[in-house]
């Protein structure tokens, strides 16, 4: 695993990503590029356009140029790495690809994006068939869209754009917000254990459909407890905590505690409190000190579906 793949996929469809335009999608639809999960394949499954692929595939070019697809990031942010996955494309993958990025706020149309200034973040690189290609990205620029260029044509199963969310929080001025949410710029920066599923799942948008869409640890055989640290969207005052154990019927933690962190200072937010399985819990918090991070301790181990920390930016 490349280190950047531990960061959220900013382009993921379930995070609000969209493939807004493509030069061609004759054989397989562009929307497949940002689907969650591994690409599927069933051999000798033919439709009216040929073999069915879980990916994006263009026709064979008979003219100069190359094919491309533009993706609106569901979570605008700083890109740390890109994965171009040609899974199952063995005789029809592009020999080369490159990736560009831009930042256009608001609701730009495909024509608006065509006129935008694009910056190359992954130079033209050689691809192989049926392979995940990992490319680290340098820089601190905030991006809202990426453009995948394939040279000259072919099929790509998935495009993953890993990074740190940097949303425009000015829309929340004077209002409360979920300071922990990935969509607002929250990020899990430390974790005791992630044996079964990734900790950033607990701050993902929406509700967990099953227990794999939350965070779950291995069974502890010592006297300790598991924990995560969430970097908040901004330093703020938390007034309501939601701890959701939905779908965790026999592996929910017995209890939870919350501690705010601000520099070297620790602020008790919620003392050790019992939890029930398969239940959304809501706790009003009574404190007056803004914090920038929160440690969520679970006792002794188990899983959480979601953690929401509602409050106001300081």
UniProtKB/TrEMBL annotation:
Residues 16-165, 185-313 form the Allantoicase domain. One of its GO terms (biological process) is allantoin catabolic process. Keywords: Hydrolase, Purine metabolism. It holds the Pfam family Allantoicase. The keyword Hydrolase applies. One of its GO terms (molecular function) is allantoicase activity. Pathway: Nitrogen metabolism; (S)-allantoin degradation; (S)-ureidoglycolate from allantoate (aminidohydrolase route): step 1/1. Its EC number is 3.5.3.4. It comes from the Bacteria. It catalyses: allantoate + H2O = (S)-ureidoglycolate + urea. PANTHER family: ALLANTOICASE (PTHR12045), INACTIVE ALLANTOICASE-RELATED (PTHR12045:SF3). HAMAP family: Allantoicase. Belongs to the allantoicase family. This is Probable allantoicase. It comes from Nonomuraea fuscirosea. The lineage of its organism: Bacteria, Bacillati, Actinomycetota, Actinomycetes, Streptosporangiales.
């Amino acid at each position: 695993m490349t280190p950047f793949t531990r960061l959220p996929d900013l382009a993921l469809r379930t995070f609000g990503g969209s493939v807004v335009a493509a030069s061609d999608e004759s054989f397989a639809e562009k929307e497949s590029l940002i689907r969650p999960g591994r690409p599927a394949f069933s051999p000798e499954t033919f439709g009216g356009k040929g073999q069915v692929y879980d990916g994006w595939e263009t026709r064979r070019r008979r003219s100069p140029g190359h094919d491309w697809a533009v993706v609106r990031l569901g979570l605008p942010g700083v890109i740390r790495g890109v994965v171009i996955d040609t899974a199952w494309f063995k005789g029809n993958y592009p020999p080369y690809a490159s990736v560009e990025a831009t930042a256009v706020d608001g609701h730009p149309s495909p024509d608006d994006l065509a006129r935008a200034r694009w910056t190359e973040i992954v130079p033209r690189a050689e691809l192989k068939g049926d392979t995940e290609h990992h490319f680290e990205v340098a820089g601190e620029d905030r991006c809202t869209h990426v453009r995948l260029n394939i040279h000259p044509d072919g099929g790509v199963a998935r495009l993953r754009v890993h990074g740190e969310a940097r949303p425009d929080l000015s829309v929340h001025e004077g209002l409360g917000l979920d300071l922990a949410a990935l969509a607002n710029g929250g990020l899990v920066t430390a974790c005791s254990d992630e044996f079964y599923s990734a900790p950033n799942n607990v701050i993902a948008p929406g509700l967990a459909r099953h227990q794999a869409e939350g965070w779950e640890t291995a069974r502890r055989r010592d006297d300790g407890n598991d924990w995560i640290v969430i970097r908040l969207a901004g330093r703020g005052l938390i007034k309501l905590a939601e701890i959701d154990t939905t779908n965790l019927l026999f592996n929910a933690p017995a209890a939870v505690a919350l501690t705010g962190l601000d520099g070297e200072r620790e602020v008790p937010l919620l003392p050790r409190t019992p939890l029930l399985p398969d239940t959304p819990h809501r706790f009003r918090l009574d404190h007056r000190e803004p914090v920038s991070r929160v440690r969520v301790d679970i006792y002794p181990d188990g899983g959480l579906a979601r953690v929401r920390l509602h409050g106001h930016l300081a």
